[in-house]
Amino acid sequence: MGDGDRERVILVPGWLWQRGAVSRAVAAGLAAGVFFGVFVLVESGSWAGAVVVFVVLSLFCGIRTARRMDLIWPAAKEMAYADRVAVVRATRCGEAVDDPRLAPPVVEYAGALRRAAEDDRLHRPLVLLVTALAVALAVYDTLTGETGETVVSWLVAVLLLADLLWWPRRREHLLARAGRAEATALRITDRGCATGDS
Fold first, then answer.
1. 53 with 40: CB under 8 angstroms?
2. Of 136, 112, 100, nearest to 14 (Cα)?
3. 2, exposed or middle or buried, with CB in 10 Å at 0-12, 13-18, 19+?
4. How far, CA to CA in Å, does 133 sit from each of 4, 99, 142, 157, 181?
5. Tens digits of per-residue pLDDT, 48-76?
6. Which of 9, 27, 47, 54 has the CB geometry, 3.0–4.6 Å to 33, for a possible disulfide?
7. What is the rounded CA–CA span in Å between residue 88 and residue 48?
8. For the chain, how many structural domains are there in total?
9. Domain of life here (predicted)?
10. Nearest alpha carbon to residue 135 among 147, 150, 120
């Protein structure tokens, strides 16, 4: 799996991991399509443009997100829905799983989140540069652009600023909880191995 396949996967919310492959693609695709379609509508006032962006990005983002999720945690495809839900919930909350056989998937999922976070950190300088450019563009549009352009420019700038300032703290809290769940799962696994050897 290349770095590009893990990039930003840590941003995927827990409830999306709990769904099947098709459901993940539909949910992620619709979210992206609606989000960017509204941006196009506000900026240009064109319903046709908004519909085109909605359809294209819904398909592209839905398929790409589902594919990335399958690559970063391949074992999830083979798990029953209830097991996947239990693993995701326990890992993201930093808790122990009730079923000892789910301890190895907790370790796998925690590791996947950690690898995705490392890729996320590597891209922070790029995010900083893009954020600076977005703020500069928003200021320029405020001075010279139309209302729709100004609104969209500032929305993009605010989202990028949130990604730059708010997300790293959120990510570290998530990783700390995943680390606790992983440590507990490893103890459960070790106890199981010790029992099996005796």
1. yes
2. 112
3. exposed
4. 23, 49, 14, 9, 39
5. 988 999 999 999 988 988 888 888 888 88
6. 54
7. 39
8. 1
9. Bacteria
10. 150
